[in-house]
Amino acid sequence: MSDRNEIPVDPHVAVVATATGVIDGDLTTADGRPLKKALQSANAVRRRRAFYLVAPLLVFILVTFIFPIGQMLHRSFYNEGFTVHEDVTTGVRTPIMTDLTAWFEAHPRGTEPDEAAFVALRNGIAQLDELKAAGSAGTRINYIRSGSRSMFTKAGRKWDKMEPPYKEAFLELDEEWGDPELWSAMRSASHSYTLDFYLAAVDLARDVEGQVVAVDVKRQVYVKLFIRTLILSVLITFLTFILAYPIAHLLATLPLRYSNLLMIFVLLPFWTSLLVRTTSWMVLLQSQGVVNDALVATGLLSDENRLQMMYNQIGTVVAMTHILLPFMVLPLYSVMRPIDPSYVRAARSLGATSWTAFRRIYFPQTVPGIGAGALLVFILAVGYYITPALVGGADGQLISNLIAFHMQKSLNWSLAAALASILLAGVLVLYWLYDKLVGIDNLKLG
Amino acid sequence: MALPKHASPLERAWHYTYLVICGLIFLFLIAPILVVIPLSFNVEPYFTFTEKMLKLDPTGYSLRWYDLLLTFGMENPEAPRTASWWADAWNNAAWIRAAKNSLIVGFFATILATLLGTVAALGLSRPEMPGRRVIMAILISPMIVPIIIVATGLFFFYSSIRIQDWGVPYLGLILAHATLGIPFVIITVTATLVGFDHSLTRAAANLGADPVTIFRRIQMPLILPGVISGALFAFVTSFDEVVVVLFVGGLDEQTIPRQMWNGIREQISPAILSVATILVAISILLLTTVELLRRRSERLRGVTPR
After folding, report:
1. Same domain, A179 and A240
2. Residue A188 and residue A411: Cα distance in Å, rounded?
3. In whole angstroms, what is the distance from residue A23 CA to residue A93 CA?
4. pTM for the full model?
């Protein structure tokens, strides 16, 4: 700022430079406030105004989306099935199994349960029976050690006929009450906060000494399912890429009036109901369906060896590839459209074969589109639920289907929440990566 | 992409192979959607083309599955088709009731998502918006987070606040579907605001317009196509959503996707295909609308298609 007089005076911003002052920072507004301060407060007002516009939606999303997911996360490491009973109709909360919890606190893990422990257990079960909660408390133990629920309900019916010494009485009722595994399970369930469900979600468990060990090979399902979900998602992403690349290229190089017409083929599936598309694939792939019938009619297949293409992984992969294909075509198209064809022409005129020109010149320019499309398809595929549930059969299920199973059928909600949390963590990492590499602003629809 | 005159025979061969491959991929995209349309007119309860259908024999086709959509769930489907029959269908037919529920939930969810989303998009597209990137990521996340996780979370949330006892019908579904529709509104509206010339609003302010007038006369006409296509996206999202409905919907909150889901899981009949055909017709209609809007928006903003 060499010469004050050169500053153009904007009549709309009432800025005056004090004529005689020479010291820097002397600029003031018409009402005499320093310009820097006035500008700062004006900017603060503008920032606040912009934020006020977004605030209602942010609050809405926090309440209807972030908070529920937070509640789910909480559920994954908090379960009060063995610590607090909440009455469904009145909402009254009663602590349960308090004596037994006290006994566990007083004695380290691995202590042989003595008579005092069984007295505490009896008192606990007596209270459970009063609350009609023996089943629900037993269910909590059942999550860790199967077969425990019936022991609790049985004890809940018989506790008033028991005579001291209670240890013998319990063992007489059921030998299993002496099982160290059961006591270990009750010990870990006696805290509301637990990592048991995360351990279970990755096929681990605590043994009697409290060490983390792998569960029985026959019961290892979750890690396998996570791996299958990843493999199928990678496969689907790859297939969508293989199918999307040629047509995106064609759409990008055709004159706009033709490509707009062909774009309908991509956008119509995009706008069609997911259930409709899944139903269509069921119609096509059934053993009495259109594809099999066509193959039999043309003599490519005999009637008795119709292909089994549904209720297995083939069904899941084919239907999901079709459903997610538009999500790959659209980002590829928007990257390919602005690519200048003269680069490839220049390469060709310099002697490159068409393959070399494609590989060295065209393809590298489309890599951002491939990244964007692949990440998007992969993120969507990992959490897919509807299509695998309908066409996947037993071995085409993904991790989402197992979460739904634990929510609706086995009712082990904490395990469902733990599995969902692991899935969510994976998806969020990918989402973060997508934002870093592609930018959410570049997400386009149609 | 015409082939140059000097192309070698090999290049020519590859070019035509490439076109055939593309044609097959387009067929893969569109055939599954179109195949349900003729099959929904099948006179037999099968999911495949009968010989009569292939010979285009009119007796191979019928509207019986569309008729079933009307009569299924009615108290007295065999009665003569008078006004009282239609009243019975309107009140009791399962699919008509599902359609009504879907429309109610979709309508209110769309209104909510569009209002909140549009206002937020106006704020987000201002350059001075603090924490723009993070907030944008949060607002788009309902589209990214697997639907099963959203449904699980909402299940816990709604049962902890006992939303069913509040006495507002459909409230849980409307809030959930609005949340799922919001990312689409944000994306489409911010897209129309890209390159928005803020000197227009400043000029208007300078000429004495108050903020409401500026919004109504300057910004609204420019973003309207984006708002409408965002609203359509939000509506379709709600109209097609099944997982949240399965998890948190009450027994009487039967929507079209839920009815379809039950139909597919229990006894899949060609009646499902007739619903599918109707839905395909609706999506063609919506696609056309959105495409027309997009072109209008580009014309308005002076973005000429290349």
Report:
1. no
2. 20
3. 71
4. 0.88
Q: Does B94 touch chain A (CB under 8 A)?
A: no
pLDDT tens, residue by residue, B91-100: 888 889 999 9
Specify the CATH number of the domain B94-301: 1.10.3720.10
Domain interval for residue A391: 222-442
Domain ranges of chain B: 94-301
Looking at A173, A198, A215, the residue that finishes a domain is A215
Q: Are residues A395 and A412 in the same domain?
A: yes
pLDDT the model gives residue B61: 84
- Last residue of a domain, which of A196, A215, A234? A215
Nearest CA in chain A to B295: A260
In whole angstroms, what is the distance from residue B281 CA to residue B275 CA? 10
| B148 vs A: CB within 8 A | yes
Length of chain A: 446
User: Taking the CB of residue A297, how many other CB atoms lie within 10 A of it?
Assistant: 13
Distance from CA of B222 to the nearest CA of A (A): 18
- Chain B residues with CB under 8 Å of A423 CB are 146, 149
Find, in chain B, the residue whose alpha carbon is nearest to that of A415.
B152
Give the Cα separation of A414 and A182 in Å (integer): 19
Quick check: B278 contacting A, CB < 8 Å? no
B237, B242, B244, B249: CA torsion to nearest 10: 120
Tally of domains in chain A: 3
Mean of the per-residue pLDDT values of chain B = 87
